[in-house]
What does this fold into?
Amino acid sequence: MMAAGLSASDPCSFSRPEECVVTHLDLHWDVDFEARIIRGRVRITCKRSPLPAPHTGRNIPLVLDTKELKIKSVTCEESKKPLEYEIGETVVPFGSPLIIHFPQDLSQNIVVIVDYETQPSCSALQWLTSEQTCSKKHPYLFSQCQAIQARSLLPCQDSPGVKMPYTAKITAPAGLTVLMSAIRKGTSYGSEDKTKTVHQFEQKIPIPSYLIAIVVGALESRVIGPRTRVWSEKEMVDAAAHEFAETEEMLSTAELLMGPYVWGTYDLLVLPPSFPFGGMENPCLTFVTPTVLAGDRSLALVVAHELTHSWTGNLVTNKNPEHFWLNEGHTMFIERKIAGRMKGEKFRHLLHLGGWNDLLKHIEEVLDHPFTCLVLNIKGIDPDDALSIVPYEKGSALLMYLEQKLGGPEVFDPFLKAYIEHFKFKSITTDEWKAFLYEFFCSKKTILETVDWKSWLYLPGMPPVKPKYDTSLTDAYTSLASRWIEASDEDDFKKFNADDVKDFSAYQLKDFLGILLNQPPMTKDKISYLNQCYGFDVTKNSEIRFRWIRICLAAHLESYIPEALQFVSENGRNKFVRPIYRDLHKWEVSKERATENYKRTKSQMHPLTATLVAKDLNLTS
It folds into this structure.
């Protein structure tokens, strides 16, 4: 079974949308902080094939993905009668299929009501106590459903190939704000219990289940644009408003590249530090890590990335996790186009080169692992285990290569807009993307035939060709890095001083350290002089601090072990946490301390992060 995947359309989903597909969800949830569960029901509208199920003579059932859900009842809305259902065998880590059978006399369009509740261990949710929040006064809840965690939050066809609109009515403790990946439609007190409020939402545009999102907490907001508020706990909201003041400019620039923004509201939510990603592109409500609050907007481009997903990912979606690069490669590529429009074409190339170096470092660490292919084979594999920078950076490099090969931005930009228009509201495969590329550039088929598609898409390792990058903004830090690499004694070290980097942007500093990180470990004396000159110990920029810590660990500087442990304890972002834990684990001096730190802080971590780090530390079978 596993060799063939869970279903024909998605190796990670039990659902059979080609036989019976969900077309709308209506959620009625009651958030219980004390029990750490969500209880309620989901009203599922589905459309089934008129043909009987093969070999059974029965009507084709509705197959949903579930994971540790407590199913209480399944009812047909039309007849008000219970429906026969069964919960199939559990397949780790994918959960279990919920198979709902229909009587012969029902129509093709059916509404099913499932009463259920989640478990406290629900992998899509993180419940924070009041002590884990900034105010220390109120509890906090947020969700993270990508890639396949929505099935632990609600019974659904948990595949990016299935899109549906949704409505929701959420009951939560009075005094707390509830937000979702949808348009807010009003709040009222419960009919009897004045200690609770009811919040209503509507998402009219069809979305995959992984984009269903909820947050409940003591939140405040600030208006930062005509269609944007930034939300967070009171203690961070003004800093967040300052950091993301350029959001409307980014959004308007994105519209020039990809067409109208169709989602109405574009709000931002800065989450607590345990949030495992830099951002999450939930429609109408982008989730953002607090690690980007550098104070100088130097890391605010994460917003450009997430809002780009409003087109590449949310409007046009990869059909299953094996084609994830379609989401992330296009998004990274267009994020950098937005940056180029705002800060100049040379800056776009600076970002691309930094990404190339990060990809080089990653592939150097994992070698020719199958997960370094753009198009993956993850049958029987948790998509989160395959997640890396490869779909982002290798995918972006492919698009940059194609842009240059086909005639430059003036030729390729119209393709991007046409791509969105052609596939909007759909989920697609790499073959469909490639077929449209050939169709759009039909007069340049000869050029496209010279692309080594097999190596780019299906072979592991670095791309077969490096795109041509403008090095105007990289030459200075590349030259400085070369000088440091060649420096070998105190006389050489004394030739460096703070003026070397006084004109560097945060991106140049980050990439300067990235080059050094890709080299063999430096000596302790060299690192000491490097820090004396440039003061990396005191940086507030998380990207710079992350690379600096890794350089020090590679050099086996024991004095940096406490800082590394503090960094992974304060930040839940997988991009930072996992590489540093792996660095600590492979060094015998810090290995045991890393394991002890993980066990001590595991309860404070997001469930996804805790699971992945446990694998990195070889604490799971």
Remarks:
- The chain has a mean pLDDT of 95.
- The first strand starts at residue 20 and ends at 32.
- The two ends are 21 Å apart (CA to CA).
